[in-house]
Write a structure and sequence with these properties.
With 293 residues, the protein is α+β, with helices and mostly antiparallel strands. It folds into three domains: 47 residues, 2-Layer Sandwich (Uridine Diphospho-n-acetylenolpyruvylglucosamine Reductase, domain 2); 116 residues, Uridine Diphospho-n-acetylenolpyruvylglucosamine Reductase, domain 3, CATH 3.30.465.10; 108 residues, CO dehydrogenase flavoprotein, C-terminal domain (Enolase-like, domain 1), CATH 3.30.390. The protein has twelve helices and 14 strands. A five-stranded antiparallel β-sheet has the order 4-5-10-6-7. A four-stranded antiparallel β-sheet has the order 11-12-13-14. Helix 11 runs antiparallel to helix 12. It is globular. The relative contact order is 0.12. It binds flavin-adenine dinucleotide (FAD). The site of flavin-adenine dinucleotide has 31 residues, from strand 2, helix 2, helix 6, helix 7 and strand 10.
Length: 293
């Protein structure tokens, strides 16, 4: 289906973006890669008279390290993130995830910020970013505010972002020695049916674990039941407790049968994937230098 005619804007600064948004209100939308927005416009699910291309806005570009955080600008594509030496060196598990998002055409144009702002539930980044304690910096004419990734996605296609706010950047704590993160997913359609993310943090010989599910619900789900069951358990003893805790927790996830699989099947995937993700995270934490996968 063809796009309904619209006026195209190419602002060069955030001030110009907000000025254009202010002028056109609900009739305008921003976009970066357009991989989600243009499909929705073509399908007539959304309709805007004015489209604002963010790609010339320098304030939203770049990937860099600031102190102990990796900062990913809103215009960074999945492909740029996957191939960035800075990301690979400082947050290797996130580079590995980016390499597997969608297909090369979508990765080349689609941005991480666009993925998070759209909040399509069958998405890879949110569960790992939650496990990594990432933060989104939102910017509006009134200033900036930080929102933890864990609190950003409220339900499908709904986020904590106010209408006059843009995602400016995503900040991910640099993975330190003794920390490991990993993401595992499975799906037979283009997007993941279920994703599972794990973090293993070793401090003075004592482990702590962070576990999150993605895609199986309408927002990322923290697997607190498993985290509680394995709290303080050394990585080598996890096989004694983890399988049962994972099975019990996954069985309690509220999920619907749909094109991605039956509810039972997705719960089974969740149980298996979270165990695999945690095993990979623990292995990465033990590798000096954090060679996460
Ligand atoms: C065929 C296909 C397969 C896919 N498979 C996967 C997959 O396997 N895993 C996965 O995780 N994802 C998948 N995706 C989703 C993909 O990751 C997103 O389409 C992409 O990241 C969106 O980025 P974009 O820059 O193109 O967003 P756009 O389409 O430009 O924008 C999307 C939405 O975000 C808003 N937006 C964009 N940038 C900002 C900003 N800075 N601040 C506020 N709002 C903003 C726009 O207004 C719009 O509502 C798939 C998509 C397609 C089309």
């Amino acid at each position: 289906m063809f796009l309904v005619p619209f006026t195209h804007h190419r602002p060069a600064s955030l001030d110009e973006v907000f000025e254009t948004l202010g002028r056109h209100g609900d009739d305008a939308a921003v976009y970066a890669g357009g991989t989600e927005l243009l499909l929705a416009l073509k399908a007539r699910v959304l309709r805007y008279e004015h489209l604002i291309d963010l790609k010339q806005v320098k304030e939203l570009s770049g990937i860099r390290v600031e102190g102990k955080e990796l900062v990913i600008g809103a215009l960074a594509t999945h492909h740029q993130i996957a191939n960035s030496d800075v990301v690979k060196a400082h947050v290797p598990a996130y580079a590995a995830l980016s390499e597997e998002v969608a297909n090369i055409r979508v990765r080349a144009a689609g941005t991480l910020a666009g993925n998070l702002a759209f909040a399509e539930p069958h998405s890879d980044p949110p569960s790992l970013l939650s496990a990594m304690d990432a933060t989104l910096v939102l910017v509006s004419p009134g200033g900036k505010r930080a929102v933890p990734m864990r609190a950003f996605i409220l339900s499908e296609f709904t986020t904590a972002r106010e209408e006059n706010e843009l995602i400016a950047e995503i900040r991910i704590p640099v993975t330190a020695a003794g920390e490991g993160f990993a993401y595992r997913k499975f799906g037979h359609l283009e997007r993941p049916a279920v994703g599972a993310s794990a973090g293993c943090i070793m401090r003075e010989g004592k482990p702590s674990y962070r576990l999150w599910f993605g895609a199986i619900g309408d927002h990322p789900l923290q697997a607190t039941e498993i985290e509680d069951a394995i709290a303080g358990v050394p990585a080598t003893s996890l096989p004694d407790v983890l399988p049962r805790a994972a099975r019990d927790c996954a069985a309690g996830i509220s999920t619907a049968s749909d094109l991605h699989g039956s509810a039972d099947y997705k719960q089974h995937l969740a149980s298996v994937l979270i165990q695999r993700a945690l095993a990979a995270a623990c292995e990465a934490a033990q590798n000096k230098g954090g060679a996460n996968a």
